Amino acid sequence: MKPFRFKLQAALSLKLRQEDILKGDLQRQQKVIEGLEYELRETQKKMAEAIENIRPTPGAVFDVEARLFFNQFWLKLKSLESCQISEIESERDTLAKIRQQLMETMRERKILEKLREKHLADYQREILREEQKVLDELALSRYIRNENTQG
């Protein structure tokens, strides 16, 4: 009998490869998001420091130029923060899509693996039937030979 050959092995191998690629993409995307979140935290720290630095000290003279500079700086920081937040949200959407693709690929791989196991079990049952058939034929021929020599 021919050795076991799963006809969909190429598809299974492809799904395994796709799964590995998507896992790598998922990790890279998570690192991108972590980097962006770090940058956002740094921007927010700068904003907190700017607030602390602009607070007037008791007895200090109100500096209009410094206040105007602060306002421009604050607007730039707020704009930067807003851009960073939207970029993080966009990257999280991408992460969710990758995660969904990975789940789908894993599901398809598991289906193919179960199908392979079923085909392998069928093949092994067929092998056992063939072996049993040969053993039955040997036993029958031995019985007939013994009957002919005794009779």
From TrEMBL:
Q: Does the keyword Transport apply?
A: yes
Q: What is its main location?
A: membrane
Lineage: superkingdom: Bacteria
Q: Which residues form a coiled coil?
A: 26-53, 88-115
Q: Subcellular localization, per the record? A: Cell membrane
N-terminal signal peptide: none
Report the transmembrane regions from the record: none
Q: Which family does it belong to?
A: Belongs to the FliJ family.
* Protein name according to UniProt: Flagellar FliJ protein
Q: Could you tell me which species this protein originates from?
A: Heliobacterium chlorum
